[in-house]
Amino acid sequence: MTKSYGEGDAFPDFSMETPDGGTVTKADLAGKKAVIFFYPKDNTPGCTTEAKDFTALKPEFDKAGVALLGVSKDSARKHQNFIAKHDLTVDLATDAEEGGLSDELGVWAEKKMYGKTFMGMVRTTYLLGEDGTILRTWPKVKVKGHAEEVLEAARSA
């Protein structure tokens, strides 16, 4: 049973693999605001647009002191290819196949497409405060204009 995480809740602890073979943890983000965006799959149209939009605005997020982290269940190798193919500068991480952060948050969920039911990542973004609490959540994200909206929220938080 997944706990429901909302605004004001502490974001759960995590440790995920990065494309370079390292790890990123919640502690790595402590002391600064952070945006963690969950997306379904590398190199798909919506996910590519979202990652490119966050990459384009990364200098603005940096100026605002906000870390960016994109998360999917794709392997580190797939992330490396995704980064290289699209010149991405946002940090990416690989969530565990089973029982990972996306499972705990409830963003790895049952989806339906073309009459088929399957498990998949529900595109969701979290804005965390410097203390690791959730300041804002965007569930079921529509990609167009999303990175700009998150930047504005991060600046005013």
From TrEMBL:
Stored InterPro entries: AhpC/TSA, Peroxiredoxin_AhpC-typ, Peroxiredoxin_BCP/PrxQ, Thioredoxin-like_sf, Thioredoxin_domain
Domain of life: Bacteria
A biological process term (GO) from this entry: cellular response to oxidative stress
Catalytic activity: a hydroperoxide + [thioredoxin]-dithiol = an alcohol + [thioredoxin]-disulfide + H2O
EC numbers, comma separated: 1.11.1.24
Active site positions: 47 (cysteine sulfenic acid (-soh) intermediate)
PROSITE patterns per UniProt: THIOREDOXIN_2
Major enzyme class: oxidoreductase
Pfam families in alphabetical order: AhpC-TSA
Subunit structure: Monomer.
Entry function: Thiol-specific peroxidase that catalyzes the reduction of hydrogen peroxide and organic hydroperoxides to water and alcohols, respectively. Plays a role in cell protection against oxidative stress by detoxifying peroxides and as sensor of hydrogen peroxide-mediated signaling events.
UniProt name for this protein: thioredoxin-dependent peroxiredoxin
Provenance organism: Erythrobacter aureus
